[in-house]
Specification:
With 239 residues, the protein is α/β, with parallel strands linked by helices. The chain contains 8 helices and 9 strands. It has helices at 2-19, 22-25, 45-51, 71-81, 98-107, 141-159, 169-176, 230-238, and strands spanning 31-36, 55-62, 66-67, 84-90, 122-124, 164-167, 188-191, 210-214, 222-226. The chain has an 8-stranded mixed beta barrel, surrounded by 4 helices. Helix 5 runs parallel beside helix 6. It is globular.
C-alpha cells in the first residue's frame, strides 16, 4: 500500500507540473543587445553596457557603393565600452550579385576574427522600395534564394563563418517561398516588434538566434534580444 501510495503521489505531482505552462516552468536566459547605423549619430555605448546590454550590430555597408559614415565611430565606441560587436550589410539584390556584395561588405567592416568579441557578419534581407524593384527587389523567389546563397557562400569561404541572416517572417515567405536551405547554416535574426514573443519562425529554423523586438532602444537604435546566456553569445562570437 505504501508503494502504491507513493506512486500515486508521484503521478499527481507530475500531472500538476504538466498542467503548468512551459514558460512558467523555465525561463530561458537571454542577453540584451541592440543594432545601430548612421541614423543614430550619437549612441551611449557605456550606458547600454551598464544597463545590461552585451552586444551591438552595426551597419557597415549597403549594396556595393555605400559605406555607413558612422561605422568606424560606432565600432570603436562599442569596443571601448566592452560590447561584443559585429557589422551588418543592407542587401540590394537587384543591383549586383550576392558575391560582389559579400566582398564589398568584407572589405569595409564586415569581417570576422576569432577574438571572442566579433560576431559573424549579418546579412540584412528586407523590403525594397519602389525604385529598388519593390518588396523583393525585382527578383523571383528562386532568384532570391540563389542571390542569398551566393552571398552566404562567399562570406563563408572568406571567413569560415556563416553570416547571420536578418529578416521578417512575411518577407521570407513572400520573397524566398519560405526556403529552408539556410536553416542549418546561418543563424536567424528575426524582426517582430512585439512584447508577445518572436512569433512564427520562418524557413525551417528551429528557433531565432536573435529577436529584434523593438525599433526603439533607450541607448540608441533598435532593441535586440539574444536567445541564450552571455556564455552562448560568446560562443557565437568565437565560432
Amino acid at each position: 500500500m505504501k508503494l502504491v501510495s507513493t506512486i500515486a503521489v508521484l503521478v499527481i505531482c507530475q500531472a500538476a507540473a504538466l498542467a503548468v505552462p512551459v514558460d512558467k516552468l523555465e525561463k530561458r536566459a537571454t542577453t540584451q543587445g541592440f543594432d545601430i547605423s548612421h541614423y543614430q549619430p550619437t549612441v551611449n555605448y557605456q550606458g547600454a553596457y551598464n544597463s545590461g546590454a552585451r552586444f551591438v550590430i552595426i551597419k557597415a555597408t549597403e549594396g556595393t557603393t555605400y559605406i555607413d559614415p558612422k561605422f568606424s565611430q560606432h565600432y570603436n565606441g562599442a569596443t571601448a565600452a566592452g560590447l561584443i560587436r559585429g557589422g551588418y550589410h543592407f542587401a540590394r539584390p537587384g543591383s549586383s550579385s550576392g558575391a560582389a556584395q559579400a566582398a564589398y561588405f568584407l572589405a569595409h567592416g564586415g569581417g570576422w576574427s576569432g577574438d571572442g568579441r566579433t560576431l559573424p557578419g549579418m546579412l540584412d534581407m528586407e523590403y525594397g522600395s519602389a525604385t529598388q524593384g519593390g518588396t523583393c527587389h525585382g527578383l523571383s523567389k528562386a532568384s532570391m534564394v540563389n542571390w542569398i546563397t551566393d552571398f552566404v557562400n562567399t562570406y563563408h569561404t572568406k571567413t569560415t563563418r556563416w553570416p547571420m541572416i536578418y529578416t521578417t517572417n512575411d518577407w521570407w515567405n513572400t520573397c524566398t517561398g519560405n526556403t529552408n536551405v539556410f536553416s542549418t547554416k546561418s543563424p536567424l535574426v528575426l524582426a517582430r516588434y512585439s512584447t508577445a514573443g518572436p512569433g512564427t519562425i520562418p524557413g525551417g529554423w528551429p528557433f531565432q538566434t536573435i529577436w529584434q523586438n523593438s525599433d526603439s532602444y533607450g541607448y540608441g537604435g533598435d532593441s535586440d534580444v539574444f536567445n541564450g546566456a552571455l556564455t552562448n553569445l560568446k560562443n557565437l562570437a568565437t565560432g
